[in-house]
Amino acid sequence: MKNTWRPKQLVRPIAVAIIKRNLQLLLSAVRNDQGDVKGWRPLGGGIEFGETAEVALLRELQEETGENITVGRLLGVLENIYQHEGVTGHEIVFVYEANFRSQGAYDKPQYEFEDGGNSNVATWVDIKTFAHRKAELYPEALRKILVSSFSP
């Protein structure tokens, strides 16, 4: 599949799920045009007209993982203005805690899915990877939310 995704030139509302497995997060690789992983982002996607952020999250996670989730508390809302391959994107991001309904879903090492004609892979990534800045986390402001959500 192609790897040349570009942000749309509009403010896009999205909802993303923070799904934890011990000290790991289920995240999707963000790739550059050469197919190299440049960072990671939570699963989720666009909120369609007439849809709440929670309903969008239920739909997006079903599409991306084939699994049903329960949506937990809202961790925060972020405004994300970013650059991807020289193109500016602008998102309003609703960040929710979420859990798989099936315990077996946590045993899968990765989830492969297609989104907008692009092949994607979501896998479990150790949270320490981002605490020590060994990899990029998108949106960047998500780092602060995650620090508080992993604290006791």
CATH architecture: Alpha-Beta Complex
Largest sheet: 8 strands, mixed
Helix-strand pattern, N to C?
EEEEHEEEEHH
Morphology call:
globular
Number of domains: 1
Structural class comes to alpha+beta
Description:
There is one protein chain. The protein is α+β, with helices and mostly antiparallel strands and 152 residues long. The chain has a single domain, classed as Nucleoside Triphosphate Pyrophosphohydrolase (Alpha-Beta Complex), CATH 3.90.79. It has three helices and eight strands, in the order E-E-E-E-H-E-E-E-E-H-H. The chain has helices at residues 53-65, 128-131, 142-149, and strands at residues 11-18, 20-21, 24-31, 37-46, 69-84, 87-100, 110-115, 118-126. Strands 1, 2, 3, 4, 5, 6, 7 and 8 form an eight-stranded mixed sheet that branches. A hairpin with a 2-residue loop joins strand 7 (110-115) and strand 8. The chain starts with 10 loop residues before the first strand and ends with a helix. The model has no long low-confidence stretch (mean pLDDT 89).
